[in-house]
Amino acid sequence: MQNSHIRKRILLVMFLLFVFVMMTACNSTLAIKQESSVEDSHNLIVSHFQPGNHPIQTKIFDGLASDLHDQTDGRITMEFYPSNTLGDAGSQYDMAVTREADIALSVYGYSPGRFPLVTIMELPFLAESAEHASEILMTLYEEFPEMQEEHADTYPLFLFSAEPAQIISKDIKIETPDDMKGLRVRSPSPMANKIIEALGATPISMPMGDVYESLERGVIDAAVVPFETLYNYSFHEVTNYITIGDFSATPFFSVMSQKTYENFNEEDQLILDNIIGKELAKEAGSVYDVDGEIGLETAIESGAEVTRLEGDALIAWQEALEPMVDEWIDERTEEGYPAQEIYDRAMELKEELSDREE
Known about the structure:
D-Maltodextrin-Binding Protein, domain 2, five-stranded mixed sheet, signal, DctP_fam
């Protein structure tokens, strides 16, 4: 009897021990699952310099946020900080590098000297539209490791361009390079400074918000700007002459912190990779093309006279600005880049894409 009683007690202790072990294991498994769930959920901080009602926010970023949310079953969400809320336009790229923001968007030109190969998009007569320029830029990025190396400290999402810049003026009709000589011309970038100087004019750097009043008061004689500013900044009200020559383009970046990307699980990395890239870049570019068309139409309706540099009318401009291309190739070559190869490929893409669109 006593032995039987001892055996029962031993069996009871073993049973309780078994129950304890199973409960501990279950709790550990639950904790691991909960921890995994937390790690797989991401609320991405998105910083950019555009206003919150700009189409880059309302169409591109909002669309990206919706796609990621839906395709990851809500694991990835986005929180937006537009209008340089977290840092000025020139700080956006570094904010992604240091992970002050998970995603950042801005203009390359605000970081002069940092992306020497991307400046190819600013060369004259290359970009024909924002979508056209965006596809060229993304293709060059995909094909040339040297351009990828420029972005090695972040994870690029989409690289794109605004529409080509044209020349607008209030009082002076500009048809030939000689018409530019001696003028004070608003410039958007260091490359545009060189273009304006090559045409015999004086570049004046100023924020876009100051251009309207400067044209109106005669502080500047002309401005190098894309068509969308005629609409978005109401420049049509102070523009009587427009010279269309596709003089330069302004490239943009949207990049993710490398650490943020690495913290995604493999499934979510694949989902993101399938959303970003060339098609999203073209879509971002098209935002500027749409507003550009509205801007040009608005200016014409307001009485602006348009000069299109085509055929023989373009030759003198090409001859005046050809040294810009040679200088870019020489400088990049001296820096150790395959500059001639990159430029030749860019021009090849220009023709390929133009023929396709026709």
